[in-house]
Amino acid sequence: MSLVTVGSVAFDAIETPFGKTDKIIGGAGTYIAFSSSYFMKNQNIVSVVGEDFPQEMLDKLSNKGVNLEGLQIIEGEKSFFWSGKYHNDMNSRDTLVTELNVLENFDPIIPASYQGCEYLMLGNLSPDVQLKVINRMEKRPKLVAMDTMNFWMDIAMDDLVKAIAAIDMLIINDEEARQLSGEYSLVKAAKKIREMGPKFLVIKKGEHGALLFHGTDVFFAPALPLEDVFDPTGAGDTFAGGFMGYLASTDDISFENMKRGIIAGSAMASFCVEKFGTEKLENLTKTEIEDRIQEFVQLTNFDMVKSI
Ligand code: AMP
């Protein structure tokens, strides 16, 4: 099965209570692609960078099997830049700078070799671009999932509502779910959001795990309690990459398999936060990932001998 990922490929500057970085490589598309690359080979990215983006990083993605045919390099322009500062609890952050640069006029191109893909992950980007990508797919993929953030709710709500109506699954964090629905209770928020279109909804709760909603079914997966969290940037995208990579590699979108996908995504996200940027995600081994997934299984596994 094949996966198409759309998302920013960018520069980030991050400040956490543990340190500060100058410009490093980031972007939702970058994290998603690295993460899903461990689950499947047939994956493709749609994005845009400026001429300032290092070829070395594109080579790293390519070496992981990511097809870059749909990645445009715009001469004379700068890549997207985002900067954020985390609060002491590491669960919340302030955006300090968002420079759209090449994203401002991004017109996504879907190469012929990407057509017919079964799984589409619309990473955090302008909802107008996300919609264009859906409309430019000649055949509707089996599963269209999408991420977004408060930035787009603030400046492009009308387009965002249209994009949400056109997808199968929305993957957002708890704060975004509250802002989008106007409901504090996540159960009420989930109901309202699903009335906007998507049959499936994942609400990520940072170090408190993730919830999956479908019909009357709800599944909850914890996050792995980690000793050190250095940088949560990209954890949500890494989660989405692991989740979609798992679903695409197993080609099964039943609720039961989505539960496994949530665990795969959570395991990948737990690696992402251990180092700044994409560093940890670039060189994982199959054994490390398998062991981490088993840790999750152990974390949630118990035997209820007597109920009452
Ligand atoms: P996450 O921590 O999962 O929310 O993702 C952070 C990544 O999203 C960073 O690497 C940023 O480059 C990227 N990002 C932040 N804001 C935007 C935006 N408005 N559009 C696209 N990508 C963004």
UniProtKB/TrEMBL annotation:
Keywords: Kinase, Transferase. GO terms for molecular function: kinase activity. SUPFAM superfamilies: Ribokinase-like. It comes from the Bacteria. GO terms for cellular component: cytosol. The keyword Transferase applies. Gene3D superfamilies: 3.40.1190.20. The keyword Ribosomal protein does not apply. Residues 5-279 form the Carbohydrate kinase PfkB domain. PANTHER family: RIBOKINASE, SUGAR KINASE. This is Sugar kinase. It comes from Brumimicrobium oceani.
